[in-house]
Write a structure and sequence with these properties.
The protein is α+β, with helices and mostly antiparallel strands. The termini are far apart. The N terminus is likely disordered.
Length: about 300
C-alpha cells in the first residue's frame, strides 16, 4: 500500500512540473522524498511481516513418563484355551467335579458358563468325567492358581496342564470393516428405494438387493459377536479320572487282571483242548483206518510185485 502511494505522488509531481515550472520542482522533490521513505519503510517492514505470517513451529509431543509403556498401535484380540487334568481317588472324582461346576455357576453367567458336563460311572472302582467352561480370563487365572492345592487336599494330582492362544486380531478387524461397508451399502439402498421413482422391476430389484444386504449384516454381526466372545471369555476344559493303585481290583491293572483271570484262563485253555480233541477225534479214526489198509493190503502187494 505504501509503494502505491509513492507511485501516485511521483505521477502527480511529473504533472505539476510539466504544468507549473519552478513550483513543480519543489513538489517533485517532496513527492520523491515521500516515495523513497515509503519504499524504505516497506523494505524494512517486509521481514517483520514475513515473520508474522510464518507458521509457529509445533512443539514435539512430550515423552511418556518414566515407567509407563508407549501406547500400542492397534488393539490385539487373543483367544485363549486351557486344558487341565485331575487324577483323583475314586471317591473324590464326583465331588471335585461338582464343586467346580457349582463355583462356575455361583460366579454368574456374565463371568462363567458351564457349556458341557458329563460323568461316567464305569464301575465301582473307576469313575471319569469332563467339564467344559467358558469364563473371564481373570476367573480362570484365579481358578488355575488353586488347583494344585485342591488336588493335594483331595489326595490326587494334576495329570496335565495346557494353554494355547489364537490371534484373532486380523479376523476381527477385517470382519468389522466388512460390516461397516455393508451397512453403508444398506443405507444407500434404503435412500435409493425411498427417493427413486422408476419402474416396478427396478424397485423390486432394489428391494431384493436390500434384503440380501440385511441378511449379510445379520450373519456378519453374529460372527463378529462370536469372535469377540472368544476373546472376552476363554475356554477351559477339565478332565477327571480315577487314580489307580499298583494292586487293585481294577482290570486296567495288568497284575490284578492276571490274578483275577487265572482260573478263568485255565478253564478256557482246558475247554480249548477238549474242543480240539473232540473235533479231531473223527479224523484220527479216519487216518488210522487208511493207514491200516495201506500197511495190510496195499503195501504187501507192492512188495510181492517187486519181488
Amino acid at each position: 500500500m505504501t509503494i502505491r502511494f509513492g507511485l501516485a505522488g511521483l505521477a502527480a509531481a511529473f504533472i505539476l512540473s510539466a504544468c507549473g515550472g519552478g513550483g513543480g520542482d519543489a513538489v517533485y522533490e517532496e513527492a520523491e522524498g515521500g516515495m523513497l521513505g515509503s519504499m524504505d519503510m516497506a523494505v524494512k517492514s517486509a521481514p517483520r511481516m514475513a515473520q508474522d505470517r510464518a507458521p509457529s513451529p509445533v512443539p514435539p509431543p512430550p515423552p511418556p513418563p518414566d515407567g509407563e509403556p508407549a501406547p500400542e498401535a492397534a488393539e490385539q484380540y487373543i483367544a485363549y484355551s486351557h486344558s487341565l487334568g485331575f487324577r483323583l481317588p475314586v471317591a473324590q472324582v464326583e465331588p471335585v467335579m461338582m464343586g467346580h461346576a457349582e463355583a462356575c455357576r455361583a460366579a454368574g453367567t456374565s463371568v462363567c458358563i458351564v457349556t458341557n458336563s458329563n460323568l461316567n460311572n464305569q464301575s465301582d472302582d473307576y469313575v471319569s468325567g469332563n467339564l467344559s467352561i467358558r469364563a473371564k480370563p481373570e476367573w480362570i487365572e484365579a481358578f488355575m492358581a488353586g488347583v494344585d492345592a485342591e488336588a493335594d487336599a483331595a489326595g490326587g494330582e494334576i495329570s496335565y496342564r495346557n494353554t494355547s492362544a489364537e490371534d484373532l486380531t486380523r479376523t476381527i478387524i477385517d470382519t468389522d470393516a466388512r460390516l461397516t461397508a455393508t451397512k453403508t451399502l444398506q443405507s444407500r439402498l434404503q435412500t435409493l428405494l425411498e427417493t427413486r421413482d422408476g419402474e416396478l422391476s427396478e424397485l423390486l430389484a432394489i428391494e431384493r438387493e436390500l434384503a440380501r444386504v440385511n441378511s449379510e449384516i445379520d450373519s456378519t454381526e453374529s460372527y463378529l459377536r462370536a469372535l469377540r466372545l472368544r476373546v472376552s471369555m476363554s475356554q477351559l476344559s477339565i478332565g477327571y479320572e480315577t487314580k489307580l493303585t499298583a494292586f487293585g481290583p481294577r482290570r486296567e491293572n495288568p497284575l490284578g487282571e492276571a490274578l483275577s483271570d487265572f482260573f478263568y484262563n485255565l478253564s478256557g485253555g482246558l475247554a480249548g483242548v477238549i474242543t480240539a480233541f473232540a473235533v479231531g477225534l473223527p479224523w484220527l479214526f479216519l487216518i488210522g483206518a487208511m493207514l491200516w489198509i495201506w500197511l495190510r493190503v496195499i503195501w504187501p502187494r507192492i512188495r510181492r510185485k517187486k519181488t
